[in-house]
User: Fold these one by one.
Assistant:
Number 1:
Amino acid sequence: MKDLTRCVITPNVVTEGFVALGAGVHRASTIVFENAEAYANRGKRGPDGYSYGLHGTPTTRTLEAKLTVLEQGVRTFLLPSGQAANAIAMLPFLRAGDGVLLADSVYPPVRDFANTDLARFGVEVGYYDPADPSDLAARLNDRTKIVWCESPGSTTMEVQDLPRIADIAHRYGALVGCDNTWATPLNYKPLSLGADIVTEGLTKYISGHSDVLLGSLTIRDEQLTAPIRSTLGRLGICVSPDDASLVLRGFETLGVRMRHASEGALQLISRIKAADIVDRVLHPALPTSPGHSIWKRDFLGSSGVFGIVFKEGLSRHVAPSLDVLKTFAIGASWGGTRSLIALMPVRAYRSVTQWDGDDLILRVSVGLEDHQDLFEDVDALFTEISARGSAWTIPR
């Protein structure tokens, strides 16, 4: 063998006895076969075999296996983002003339995908009151193939009665999907409550460090495997093993991070509720939050993301007041180590339910900082909002 060839061909080394705690990073597009017959029969390897990097490597399969067990499902697929997971949860099971019903509190990009792309493909798109299963029942028909849930709802935090929704949807033969990014599989198990598909924005709590985009889709029934896998293949969708390894690393501290964030959020909320400029706080663990009784029944815990609704007339002063923040960062997404704040409008993302009051919620994601620093930051923010509000109301 000549030297140029030796540069290209990698020798096999003994791996017996090498057992590491962290998952190895396996990068590959091409998968080689021991002989021509194995290559010719590569299609028979099935969804668990290896035939091409597009369909997975040991690194991505490790993350899929971890998620599958926690979600109590049968198989998991990785996607480039949480929104990609939501889209692929629907596309394989819809065709022109079918219908889809989405909770009115759904993640805005899901609404945009349904209204723009699914509608363009000839799918009938409708919405239902997330807090009223009877409203869903009234809107279901034989064309409905998917009922989409998000519990708690994006921004407004409505908790859905998933077992009842699944029962109603399954009577019509519809699949039930649920975005579980807020709770993660540590705190909520949609598949055990009747959902057929559960998605996660791994970008957020599970990766936990605001440095990777990834999503997952886990199914309850193996019969859903072929439509999803073939759709991913036709669209050429896969994920990087390097990204998967980052999520695997973050996954190991998910429990302690979630506990710290949840405890910090509840302590912060107790202070926020007492502020005279606050109308209410939206968080499922609060008895005053929509669906609290269902949250107590079905959830195992909570996360550090919640919403603040200010008293009428103060919303205009919130955005300019954010500049006083020193510990909180202003930014989209959530679930990382850094606490984040973002302004969220509501009315533009509602079809069948009405949002009362000012059209703004301040979304808060508590991270891993010392809670006292967060308390001081919020105190400074509220002082600034109050000062601006008082100045605005002084008669001229």
Note: Residues 392-396 have pLDDT under 50 and may be disordered.
Number 2:
Amino acid sequence: MKELKATRVIPGDRWQILDDPDNRIYTSLTECLNAIFQQTGMAQFYMDAKAGEVHIEDGVQPKPEIKKFSLYGEEI
């Protein structure tokens, strides 16, 4: 499942990791991706350049919600 991990801080090529307790701003995308890798161990990144977002993929698919019904077809 994709998780939003970092966003671009304007102006320029500055990035901030969302759950960083120090709220550090990285001066390049490469530096930010390296910090995410060091923090999570994940090396598969998805970029949305227009939105200025970096997502990581954890490989876990969300479980589908299973609806339960009674004997009479009413949703429980």
Note: The two ends are 28 Å apart (CA to CA).
Number 3:
Amino acid sequence: MTLSGSAASPVASVRKDKPIAKLVVATSIGNALEWYDIAVYGYFAVYIAKAFFPNSDPTISLLLTLGTFALSFITRPLGGLVLGMYADRRGRKASLMISILLMTLGTLAIAFMPSYETIGILAPIAVLVARLVQGFSAGGEFGSSTAFLVEHAPERRGFIASWQFASQGLASLFASAFGVGLTLWMAPDNLQAWGWRIPFLFGALVGPAGLYIRNQLKDATAPPAEKAVSPIAEVLLNQKMRVLLGIGALAVSTAINYLILYMPTYVVKTLHLPASVGFIATFAGAIVVTVLTPFAGLVSDRIGRTTHMITINVLLLLSIFPAFLLLTRIPTPVIIIAAVFWIATLKSLYYGPLAALMSELLPAATRATGLGLGYNIGVMVFGGMGPITMAWLGGFAVIGDLAPGYYLTLICVLSLAALLEIRRTGANL
């Protein structure tokens, strides 16, 4: 297998007259809204559990909430395929407009959803449906938006595509700010009764602004393949290894993402500290992701994707378990914040080149479809299943509160193997 040639060639129809800042904002706003919705649901899982999944055992209630969170990721690969193929056939912009509209409707539904106490079993079912809609829409977001970005600035792919993940940091920043503010300034009863809905309402307001901004863009969609072959068929028949390697490279970063997402719950349920400690830690981590990710993308444009990412992966491998050992043995707010800050720093440096690397594994004609499929399978398996997997592993006495450390170390090894294979088969990456 060779990962060069057309997979890394620039698109002939790239427009160079659009300011990069406008492209980044318009394209990344949907990805930011997607991650904001995910972050808010994860950060406020304890409150959502009581509102929609009440149970006499709080652990079962939380597992049901996280299980619904995980199930919503099932529709992501489907969204990645359907909206990715639509983007490859009809244009990136057309797909991006659909995805942000569906995402906004799902967020709005959760914000106004009556509780279990009001409508009974319909409440958790409706929450699941809303999350499935969000999962489908989010599935089409990454592939289309990443393809859009790299096809507008092929000579700066690492830098411009890195804003996909930097926007996630900004979204986490807002979600964490809501968590810190609401847990510090609202009475617990009010926060449980209605306060947790405020972040969802804010997310719903972002959607219309995103639709307007995206509608102003002109598309630079790559020309369709010369043969009238379905992008899905082409990806599944001839590009499976490229997609699998992309999933492997993504695995550790998305696992860490969802570990940080799980941190407020981990702090309360496992370390028995105030929720505000977890939110402050995630807020600090979000600042790091927002600031460092574009820098890492820029560096990768100069030294190469795999050289940069393999180095950071090794640092992660050496850091993850000691960080959690320290965090669980000395669970003070300072240690927790420092541990999250360090892990977020390494994640940011790894994140920077990732979107460009994944896009370069695929030719332009199937880029949105292949990215959508690979990214969303990786996020579903290693991300969406992460919080419930760590919560479940934590129930074993031999693993206990070190479950995240064991989990992430294994996935880090998997990503390192994928990066080494990418480097071996495509040295230009």
Note: The chain has 18 helices and no strands.
Number 4:
Amino acid sequence: MSRARGSFGRLLRSELALLFGRRRTLALLAGLAAVPVLLSVVLFIAQGQGLDGQGPGFIGRVTGNGLFLVVAALFMCLPFLLPLTIAITSGDTIAGEAQAGTLRYLLTLPVARTRLLVAKALVALAFAVAAVLVITAMSLASGGVFFGLGELTLLSGTTVSLGDGIGRMLGVAGYVAMSLTGLVAVGVFISTLTEVPVGAMAATVVVSVVSTVLDSLPQLAAIHPYLLTHHWFDFAEFLRIEVDWSVLASGLLVQVAWVAVFGSLAWARFRSADVTS
């Protein structure tokens, strides 16, 4: 048992080093890190030109407190940029190995298919967490430089301390990261269906886009609570006086369901797949 855990740990460390050592991964993280920097520059130049009432309610508040840049940057990245980068990573997990001809080699080593799949999925999830953390860290840094960090005025007008405000921003980041777990599971599953990584990446993005489109149709209100993207923006609960944890729990429960379904499908597919490359 301890030998199995040791081999899995080595496999996981190897996969993490491989992913975060790629130039593509670093380029994706750098692109996400640039978003809060560019946003802060634009808002700094445009401050005093009547930002209130334009876009989400917290955009105009960024110039008054850099903490709001965390929410603004995540809000901008969540609909497309974050799903795109996660699709690139998760869609490449199995399909990338198959295309490179290394998947068959990996399976000839003393590594069970289930452990390999779990390691790949955890690495894809690690990228999702890293992506959100990079955006959050750069938002705090840029917000502090351009607008300063201070006591946080919530959407209701109540003011909380800087420490509480930072804690709430970290809560926002944590919720966003956990809200992306379902998309990671979808990407890993699709990656087991093909030997073409680009196809898996594109299909994963399509799932996210279709979910967003369906969520915008009032005629389909009955299925909205179960859609992958429906609860992504519930992080706004952290900007209220009292956080409604039941709302956040509902959103995370949906992600658990998506992970359970598509994780099981990925396992069933990969366990029975005839690996020829």
Note: Residues 2-272 form one domain.
